[in-house]
Amino acid sequence: MINDFALTEHFRLREFQCKCGCGTVKLDPSLVWRLQALRYKVGGPLVINSGYRCQAHNKAVGGADNSFHMQGLAADVACPKGLTVEQFTQMCLELGFTGVGAYPDQGFVHVDMRPGPQVRFQ
After folding, report:
1. Which of 1, 10, 46, 87 has its CA 20 to 30 A from that of 16?
2. Is the whole model's pTM more than 0.90, yes or no?
């Protein structure tokens, strides 16, 4: 299987590849290592709903024209069982993701490693 190799103790590259089926993936190392730290903090598995997005897929899902997903700098992570989206968002902020967006209606948190100071959005 393409992209099926370990990046860290708990993440494989295929978890971050574009969901449209093209198999393309870009991933900034700072993002995956921060996600590994988050996984340790949570104490259990994390599900990556969306990692890298090719331009066509990003457009199809209504992503921003300059989405950090297209640069390999962002991931949408399902909120782990036992945590509220607000609690999970706070953990992400504490670990230093520079972009953190809470989506309580959809049960996930967007995290990214955008340049500049930390930003929280909803």
Report:
1. 87
2. yes
